[in-house]
Fold Ferredoxin reductase family protein.
Amino acid sequence: MTIQADLSDGYAPGGAPGPGAPTPGPADPPPTHPLYSRLDPRCLPPRPHRAPPRPHRAPPRPHRAPRRAPVPVPPLRLTPVALRRALAGGAVPVVGLWLVQAEPSMRLDALFATLAHLSGLLAGYGILVMLLLMARVPAVEHGVGADLLARWHARGGRHVLTLCLAHTVFALCGYAAHTGTDVLGAALGLLGYPGLAAATVGTVLLAGVGVTSARTVRRRVRHETWRAVHLLTYVGAGLAFAHQLSGPDLAGGPVAVWLWALLHTTVGTLLVWYRLVVPVRQALRHSLRVTEVRTEGPDVVSVVMQGLGLDALRAEPGQFFRWRFLHRRLWRTALPFSLSAPVRDDTLRITVKACGDHTRRIRRLRPGVRVLATGPFGALTAHRRTRRKVLLLAGGVGITPMRALFETLPGGPGDLTLLYRAGDAAQLVLREELERIAAARGAALHYLLGPSDGPFDPLAPRALRHLVPDLVEHDVYLCGPPGMSRAAAAALERAGVPADRIHSEQFTF
């Protein structure tokens, strides 16, 4: 379905006023006095000759440059490539610290001790990286994207656990070889040292976090339980830091200890500021409350919230917040939902589909409920755009960020195309708004309806090229369920769209 724009503007051609223009008023009075208009100028006495008055010159005023409106400073964004390079570059001095302390030796105990030091330093640095990725620093969140950060965090967590276990095994083997005892005896001997006992507890806590984060386990535990266990990461990181300060890993001197402590302090400050101070400050400043909950479709509602000074949030279309509704059985969980409309008149709106216990309870919210919103997060915004033409591809309730982008992305008639994938017409959300936006902007809007297991795939490469003939000239914004997003991204690449012009963000992560 393609919606064309209505470009009539109500004015007559050639600049003439239309039927609604105001009628001109009466003519202005003539500049000559009415008495002189009735006299013959030849009968009037001559005017006396007077010297022209000397013009009064005002003192010169100092030249002032015209004031210019302040140009808004664009938010700082760190690209994924820059962040990856920075994190990899940070590991170089860590390895350098190990090289400075390494003592070449062919003895078995010395070899195990050297490997234990290297794996311990890298594990400590890896823990800091994992905490930094989840610190919700705006420059990182808005440049990399919360979904990509979450995947990096999950993948990096497995590597950190491997390094922690390797450090434990190498330390046990080295101590056993040095004392001439077996591994069990070495373990009991090492537990007698307070620093090593703390490190053991920290390792156990980190391993428990890793086990509950495994995909098969996480599906079976409640989100609140997983989150509570995940908070033990901070305890494990603190115990690991204490072990490193008291152990031989930082035996290179006070400078190494000072730099290591400074690195931990920096990451800890970022965590406290962006995960605790900023959310509390936003809650006190904006005083966000629910004003309306309206039904948009089967099991789909829009929640409208209003606050104070919401422009200060600098929320962009395509981004999301983590919402905590201070309502019974909802206040304990922060739920991530995208904005389904641009921020205007100190109003925020999200559109939610009931697909779990918490989302079903949102339908029962009442006006006046207090809301704590943390954010904005996400990188699926206009700054990723590199082409004049843009294709927005949405699936299911993933239409919510696409609807906001559909309204706000700059472009003329024919520059924007929206493809909306759904099982049937009843599942289309915000349909009237989408059609109104398409008509006003001269944009193309196509509904791709049908079951996902049907004989015809509307997201096949040939089907996409048929709907969008110049597809390879477009930037593509993609949002939908994980399976649909992966299939659509693969089809777009087969249709000729470069991977770096497919901008996606997982609907659930």
User: Anything to note?
Assistant: Confidence is low (pLDDT under 50) at residues 1-49. The first strand starts at residue 288 and ends at 297. The radius of gyration is 33 Å. The chain is about 45% helix and 15% strand.
